[in-house]
Amino acid sequence: MRLVLALVLVVVPGLGLLVPGLLPVWSTPAGSLSVTLLQGNIPQDEKFQSGSGVPLALGWYGDQLNRSNTDLVVAPETAIPLLPQDLPDDYWAALKTRFASGAQAALIGCAAGQYGGGLHQLRSRSCAEPAAGLAL
What we know:
The chain has helices at residues 2-18, 53-67, 91-99, and strands at residues 35-37, 72-80, 105-110, 119-121. The chain is of the alpha/beta class. It has a domain at 29-121. The protein has a four-stranded mixed sheet with strand order 1-2-3-4. The longest helix has 17 residues, at 2-18. It starts with a helix and ends in a 15-residue tail after the last strand.
């Protein structure tokens, strides 16, 4: 009995690997994508302080986004800790210009002033316009 069980446990899965089409195909590769995940490591109690955390976050994330060379760059929720209207002049416009060519894309968490509206794409949207099809 144990021999039969052992054979079933070894032979059946083995057949699935050896016989093409025996097992269902769940997905197929469509290419590759290089991704950079950013994490600023700014203490939560400092993150929204105008004299310390805000300039640190804007500087660090701005630098990392501008220096990235992967297909996709992802920054976490409230990486940009200010509402769009409170950002320094041209900060968001400079990031949009950086990613406008379409060779790269970025997903950046930013405060949007409304519940559920903080995840945005730089490729085609501004921080004030939530990206379609993205959920928080």
